[in-house]
From TrEMBL:
The keyword Membrane applies. Belongs to the ATPase epsilon chain family. InterPro entries: ATP_synth_F1_dsu/esu, ATP_synth_F1_dsu/esu_N, ATPsynth_dsu/esu_N. GO terms for molecular function: ATP binding; proton-transporting ATP synthase activity, rotational mechanism. Produces ATP from ADP in the presence of a proton gradient across the membrane. This is ATP synthase epsilon chain. NCBIfam families: ATP_synt_epsi. SUPFAM superfamilies: Epsilon subunit of F1F0-ATP synthase N-terminal domain. It is found in: Cell membrane; Endomembrane system. Pfam families: ATP-synt_DE_N. CDD domains: F1-ATPase_delta. It comes from Candidatus Roizmanbacteria bacterium RIFCSPHIGHO2_12_FULL_41_11.
């Protein structure tokens, strides 16, 4: 088992024993298993998959870092939300507003913020489409 901690600037979101965790990086996804080689890596905005013998659980994260020594993995991210914490209607509305801003404004600051909101909204919508899976016995 691997001891996992997911921490944001405001709280510890997850602390539990797992069999593996898959995280998004700049170069693609990587999966951390017990006894993994020491690793420190940057994480991209995306979806984390946590697995144990009973279930597979997902979270949307902002960018951050992962550090592991093979016994424990610590993930420090700007944000982390479980599926039940995301409001589909608000997320869809934010996505539509960001797209509208990109269509009508040339202001670099507004466009940068709109791209960030759009990226975050797309990750959240992707997470909402995933289903929590129970292990097959």
């Amino acid at each position: 088992m691997l001891k996992l901690q997911i921490i944001t600037p405001t709280k510890k979101v997850v602390e539990r024993e797992i069999d593996s965790v898959t995280v998004p990086t700049e170069d693609g996804e990587i999966t951390i298993l017990p006894r993994h080689a020491n690793l420190f890596t940057l994480l991209s905005e995306g979806i984390i998959t946590m697995r144990d013998s009973k279930e597979e659980e997902y979270m949307a994260i902002g960018g951050g870092y992962l550090e592991t020594d093979g016994k424990q993995a610590q993930i420090l991210v700007s944000r982390a939300f479980k599926q039940q914490e995301i409001d589909a209607k608000l997320t869809q509305k934010a996505l539509e507003e960001a797209r509208q801003i990109l269509k009508v404004t040339a202001d670099k600051t507004q466009r940068t913020e709109a791209v960030s909101i759009m990226r975050r909204s797309l990750v959240n919508l992707k997470l909402l489409k995933k289903r929590k899976r129970s292990a097959t016995i």
